C-alpha cells in the first residue's frame, strides 16, 4: 500500500470546509477525526490479531515519514496515547519510520517513547551509512 496515492488514508471530507482542518497536526478537529476512526473502528478491528492475544501483530507504526511533514510532538504523543488507551498492557511495539536524507527527519518524525526506524529510498547503502 502506498499511502501517498490515496491522500494518506485520510478522508476527503477533512478538506471540504472553507478553512480546511490542518492535517497531521495536533489541531483539535483533526485529532477528533483520528480518534473517532482509530478508537471507534480501526484499533478494535486490529485488537484480536495482537501478539498478546496470540495473533501476528507485534508492532504498530504510529506515523509514516512525519519528519518530512512537520514538527508537532504533541500530535505524535496524542497518537501514541490513543493506541495505549485502546490496548493497555496488550499494546504492541510502537514505532515511526522516517527517511535519513537529513538529520532533522529522524528527530522530527518520532518520539523518545517509541522506536524510530528508517527507510532508505533508492540508495540503501548510502542512507544506512548516514544513519550510523
Provide a descriptive summary of the structure in words:
By secondary structure, this protein is an alpha/beta fold. It is 39% helix and 12% strand. It has helices at residues 28-46, 66-69, 73-87, 103-108, 124-131; strands at 59-64, 93-98, 115-118. Strands 1-2-3 form a three-stranded parallel sheet. Helix 4 links the parallel strand 2 (93-98) and strand 3. Helix 1 packs parallel to helix 3 (73-87). The two termini are 28 Å apart. The model has no long low-confidence stretch (mean pLDDT 89).
Question: Any descriptors?
Answer:
3 strands; alpha/beta
Task: Give a brief description.
The protein has helices at 28-46, 66-69, 73-87, 103-108, 124-131; strands at 59-64, 93-98, 115-118. The chain is an alpha/beta fold and 132 residues long.
Class computed from helices, strands and strand pairing: alpha/beta
Q: How would you spell out the order of helices and strands?
A: HEHHEHEH
Strand content: 5-15%
- What is the oligomeric state here? single chain
Whole-angstrom Rg: 16 Å
Number of strands: 3
The largest sheet has its strands arranged as 1-2-3
Low-confidence segments, ≥5 residues, pLDDT <50? none
